[in-house]
Amino acid sequence: MYNCTFLAENCIRPFAIGRKNFLFCITPQGAKASALYYSLVETCKAMDIDPQKYLTHLFSNAASCKTDSDWDAMLPDKVDLSPIDDYYDTLRKAVPNPDRKEPYMLRGKKR
Question: Structure pTM?
C-alpha cells in the first residue's frame, strides 16, 4: 500500500510543482492546452516513450491531420518514432560550411 501511494505522489509531483505556472495560462484555452501537453508527456513517460521524440514527431506531422482518425493515429502508443532517431542523427552530423558568406537563415525573415 505504501509503495502505491508513494508512486502516485511521485507521478503528480511535476504537476503540483507547476501549479504556480498555471496562473500564466490567462485563458481557459491556455489551461486546456497546458493540460493536453501534461497529459501527453505523462502518457509517454508511463509507456517508456521519450517525450521529446514524441513531441518532435507530433509537431512535425500535426499539419497533415484533417480528421479525428488522423489525430487518433498520432497518439503515443500508435506512432513509429524510428524516423526521429534518423532526424536526430542528421542534426548531430551537421557541420557549418566554412566557405559560406551569407548567414544561415533558420527561421523568420532576413533582417
Answer: 0.64
Nearest in space to 74 (alpha carbons), one of 61, 93, 90, 88:
61
Is residue 67 over pLDDT 90? Answer: yes
- Tell me the C-alpha distance between 16 and 38, whole Å: 12
Contact 106/100 with Cβ under 8 angstroms? no
Phi, psi (rounded to 5 degrees) for 31? -65, -40
Distance (Å, rounded) from C-alpha 61 to C-alpha 67? 13
Cβ 53 vs Cβ 45: under 8 Å: no
Write the pLDDT tens digit of every residue in 85-109.
888 888 888 888 889 888 877 665 5
Contact 38, 11 (CB under 8 A): no
3-state secondary structure of 21: helix
Q: Give the Cα separation of 17 and 10 in Å (integer).
A: 11
Contact 54, 79 (CB under 8 A): yes
Beta-strand (E) ranges in the chain? none
Range 79-84 average pLDDT: 87
